[in-house]
Amino acid sequence: MHTSDNGLDALTELLSGRRLAIVTGAGISTDSGIPDYRGPDSPPRNPMTFQQFIGDSAFRRHYWARNHIGWRFMDGARPNLGHRAVASLERSGQAVGVITQNVDLLHTKAGARNVIDLHGTYAQVRCLDCQKLISRTTLAERLEEANPGFAETVAAAQGVEIAPDADAVIESTAHFRVVDCDVCGGILKPDIVYFGESVPKERVARAYSMVDAADALLVAGSSLTVMSGLRFVRYAAKAGKTIAIVNRGHTRGDEFADLKLEIGCTEALSALVTSETYRATKSSA
To answer: Which of 42, 79, 187, 269 could, after both became Cys, cross-link 110 (CB 3.0–4.6 A)?
Structure first.
């Protein structure tokens, strides 16, 4: 593996003439103001597990209180040049699509069409009993009715620090009221794959098919700490595909990479879009 602190020319040369499957993680969204989990400057974070969420009503109350504030920030986030570059690579035919570990919908907002939201999105909520789906906006209205003025009161009292996965960092949640499914009374949960859950098999199969359709795999902004992303790097390596990784800091996939760049995702992806190779691909598409 070749490792570089810049190496944009090496990246464009390595991926020249190859159709890409792109795997993205939290690092691609930091330029949109959404913090990541494991970047070099990220504080320690302990995301709630699935077992905690379903097994303890106090954990659920704490989660929904934080999410009631934090989801609005994520909903208002806008794609950055990295997301727009991925969409442009797809439109040109150089990328077959994107597999994202993020739940922020920023690839879709940027105009990408073939997006696999591996871990789901913040924008839907599912009943764990009857499986009914509702929008996060609908739940927000119900939570506001049950907790009038909560968001404004918390923000005024202590300010709001945003955490990944549409959370806000707040401490005082004991007085928050959680609402249940209005159809069956079951537990409502964000339609997001929590730590301790498995990605739906059909979603994983679609992601493998996307890698199959590509000549190369580009990882942007993921430490590949969890197997849900690392599996695609291992799969591509076993198939003999070219692998490039762009991430600040070590990843679990570094040993499989033909090239590893320690630079920002926006810089690297924008370089691919503006390269002569990209322009040639676009003109012949």
So the answer is: 79
Q: Provide the domain count of the chain.
A: 2
Residues 22 and 102 occupy one common structural domain: yes
* Domain end (from 160, 192, 224): 192
- Give the span between the Cα atoms of 275 and 17, in whole angstroms: 12
209-235 confidence digits (pLDDT tens) = 999 999 999 999 999 998 999 999 999
Report the sign of the C-alpha dihedral through residues 211, 215, 221, 224, in that order. Answer: positive
Cα gap 80→73, rounded to integer Å? 15
Give the residue numbers marked as catalytic.
119
* The Cα angle at residue 228 between residues 168 and 129, in degrees rounded to 5: 65
User: What is the CB-side half-sphere exposure of residue 123 using CA atoms within 13 A?
Assistant: 11
Runs of H (alpha helix) within the chain: 8-15, 50-55, 57-76, 81-92, 106-109, 136-146, 150-158, 201-212, 227-238, 265-274, 276-284
Identify the three-state secondary structure at position 280.
Answer: helix
Q: Which two tokens stand for residue 186?
A: 């079951």
Which one, of 63, 69, 39, lies nearest residue 168 by Cα? 69
* Distance separating alpha carbons of residues 78 and 90, to the nearest angstrom: 19
| Amino acid (1-letter code) at residue 124 | Q
Domain boundary among 157, 173, 192: 192
Q: Is residue 39 part of a domain?
A: no
Q: What is the pLDDT of residues 111-150, one digit of tens each?
A: 999 999 999 999 999 999 999 999 999 999 999 999 998 8
Both tokens of residue 6? Answer: 């810049």
